[in-house]
Amino acid sequence: MKRTSTRLADGREILYYDTGDGAARAFPDTRPLGTSASATSSEVRRDPLLGDRVVIASHRQDRTYHPPADACPLCPSTEGHVSEIPAPHYEVAVFENRFPSLAADTGRCEVICFTPDHLTSFAELDEERVALVLAAWSDRTAELSAREGIRQVYCFENRGAEIGVTLAHPHGQIYAFSFVTPRTARMLATVAAHRARTGGNLFDKVLAAERAEGTRVVLETEQWTAFVPYAARWPYEVHLYPRHRVPDLPALGDAARAEFPRVYLELLRRFDRLFDRPEPTPYISAWHQAPTGEGREDFALHLELFTIRRTADKLKYLAGTESGMEAYMNDVRPEDAAARLREVASA
Fold first, then answer.
1. What whole-number distance in Å separates Cα of residue 7 and Cα of residue 51?
2. Dihedral sign (CA 83, 86, 88, 91)
3. Does the pTM exceed 0.90?
4. In this predicted model, what pLDDT tens digit does every residue of 201-240 receive, in sequence order?
5. Catalytic pick among 59, 66, 171, 244
6. Helix (H, G, I), strand (E, B) or coil at 37
7. 169 part of the active site
8. Looking at residue 322, what DSSP letter applies?
């Protein structure tokens, strides 16, 4: 893998990731952008009753919203259109978000573009490109985790207008938080309590139980296991674990890295075959990684993939119980979801 780092017109960093060594990527950004919006101040507030952190980022109201394809800011730059990516071609590109949720003193927000092709999706990439994306996720996680004040790195993809995506180009985001996110903090507390009570690792116990029981397992390989969790919150939700527990993406072994592209592409393609619709299935794909400090020794890297679509013509909205009380009500039995995801496996 070759990594090229350069700067955009307003000083934001952009990095190009390539499979070969010959690509020239240090093209100048000719836009008159002025001062970087990434310096905009956002604020992290703590809920006094729950203890959760909430980010206040009012400047994001003015971010780019559903531009036409010929004005996409994530496509390569052309003679008639200069985008966020000055190079006329790229494989994988990562840059500081122009409209970040987190300011410099509260973290960092990056955009990762998986392909220069505006009209494709992650599920349509080849395995070599997915391996490069995995390498970029790992590289960014390692670099951002080493920065002073960063507590957790989160790599994720939102896909589909139903999810709230404002740019159609295939891309994801990488957040470096100055705090441990609420969901991770709850996991850490539960895992620590289990360790104190039993001396064992709760992630290992859950994975072993799902593999032994089998009805919710979607697919298994030598290095990865994908299953619908016993208490799934979403109609179709899959958790993907490496067979050998590691805290984060940089810690993945070579065998797991080699197998990941095939496994992940198969899961995404099954999601697209769940419903009889011409449009791709909307989803959120979220990497859960250990924080940079406490809890790393017991945390298990895993990916959570879920869709808000529950039938071909119905979405799962967060209604009063979910949004108001965080008491989830799932319309699909996890065992039935797993059976359906096995049914739509590639031939």
1. 38
2. negative
3. yes
4. 999 999 999 999 999 999 999 999 999 999 999 999 999 9
5. 171
6. helix
7. no
8. I
